[in-house]
Design goal:
- The protein is an alpha+beta fold.
- The chain folds into two domains: about 160 residues, Glutaredoxin, CATH 3.40.30; about 160 residues, Dockerin domain (Type 1 dockerin domain).
- The strands form four sheets. The chain has a six-stranded mixed beta sheet, with helices on both faces. It has a four-stranded mixed beta sheet with strand order 12-9-16-14. Strands 11-10-13-15 form a four-stranded antiparallel beta sheet, with no helix packed on it.
- Helix 1 packs across helix 6 and helix 8 runs antiparallel to helix 10.
- The chain starts with 7 loop residues before the first helix and ends in a 7-residue tail after the last strand.
């Protein structure tokens, strides 16, 4: 077994992670090699500590962290001493065969299972218990021999994730007596902190932009959202705050002010581009020059600008006066944390905006 000296800080942090007085939920699963594992009978009752890696096969952070987790597993005796690791999928579409492929790809040697091995039922029982919710992946739970659960072992304070896992296992190994002390744990809530830099082609901040949160396929509810003046937007407990969304995205819209920054000189620049005399040199110019929003820059776009200047028209086709690159921000609700996004706002018709 790995021997480790842990700090007072680590003990305090790990103690705060544990849900005392609440015993782990027993379970049985069949791993990818056809072997059956029962939490209490095979492990806890034998004085062993169990770490559960909640993951799914296609999860990018899980795949990135898998080699590190294997190193930690080997440091703790690779299941031969008093610590065992389980890799359990939290998705119904991951079969034992899928998990087997994941194990082979990353040379994992600990027991693992998919839906047909019982993994999803185990995940669901923990996700909907006092030990949940479990949204992010990978998500690590450590269970002591006395049934005490450390439901979310992550980086804490100055401890890295690897150090936090080691601290939790080390402390769990000392917890062999059942602790009947009852405390009220703080709920584990995922927080997403978005920092959105939305600037025009001159590098200036753009005001009066409408932000909405919606499903990528256009179905379901649409939620207006407010971006702080410094460009930040925070989501706490995504599914509870914005229910009913599938593959959520943030979209932008800015209307009105069609001729802001648009002059006859822009018509001349579009003409010179079309004649090949002075082709556009900046990617944004092609987007800005497509005034009628038909996907091309043509004489028709020049005509729309001229008619607006002469007040023969009041606005551009489709009501669009600004476009954005990228056109939307895709939200990965499986990966909470700090997310930075840069968006360029392009004034339609203003091909000389730099």
């Amino acid at each position: 077994m790995k021997t480790q000296l842990y700090t007072i800080l680590g003990l305090i942090l790990c103690a705060n992670m544990a849900l005392k007085g609440q015993s782990a939920i027993d379970f049985t699963f069949t791993d990818t090699n056809g072997n059956e594992h029962t939490l209490y009978e095979d492990y806890l009752d034998e004085g062993k500590v169990v770490l559960i890696d909640w993951f799914f096969v296609a999860c990018p952070p899980c795949n990135a962290y898998a080699p590190t987790l294997q190193d930690i597993y080997e440091d703790w005796g690779e299941g031969q001493d008093d610590v065992e690791f389980f890799t359990l999928s939290n998705k119904t579409f991951d079969s034992n065969d899928d998990v087997k492929g994941y194990e082979e790809m990353h040379s994992l040697t600990n027991p693992g299972a998919g839906e047909d091995g019982g993994a999803f039922d185990i995940f669901w029982s923990y996700h909907n218990s006092d030990f949940g919710p479990i949204f992010s992946t990978p998500h690590f739970t450590v269970i002591a021999p006395n049934g005490t659960v450390f439901p979310d072992v992550e980086a804490y304070g100055t401890l890295s994730r690897e150090e936090a896992i080691d601290e939790a296992i080390t402390l769990a190994l000392t917890m062999t007596e059942v602790d009947t002390t009852v405390i009220d744990p703080e709920p584990i809530i995922d927080t997403f902190n978005y920092s959105i830099s939305l600037l025009d082609t001159r590098g200036n901040a753009v005001s009066d932009v409408t932000y909405t949160l919606r499903s990528a396929d256009g179905t379901g509810p649409i939620y207006p959202i407010t971006i702080e003046p410094n460009g930040t937007f925070t989501i706490i407990d995504f599914e509870a705050s914005y229910p009913g969304l599938i593959d959520p995205i943030i979209t932008f819209e800015k209307t009105g002010g069609y001729l802001d920054g648009v002059f006859s000189s822009d018509i001349i620049l579009i003409l010179r581009h079309l004649l090949g005399i002075q082709p556009f040199s900046q990617p944004y110019q092609t987007i800005a020059g497509d005034v009628n929003n038909d996907g091309n820059v043509s004489a028709a776009d020049m005509s729309v600008i001229r008619k607006n200047i002469l007040e023969q028209l009041d606005g551009f086709p489709a009501g669009i006066s600004w476009k954005f690159n990228p056109t939307q921000i895709e939200l990965d609700i499986e990966s909470p944390g700090e997310i930075e996004v840069n968006v360029q706002a392009i004034k339609i018709g203003d091909v000389n905006r730099h």
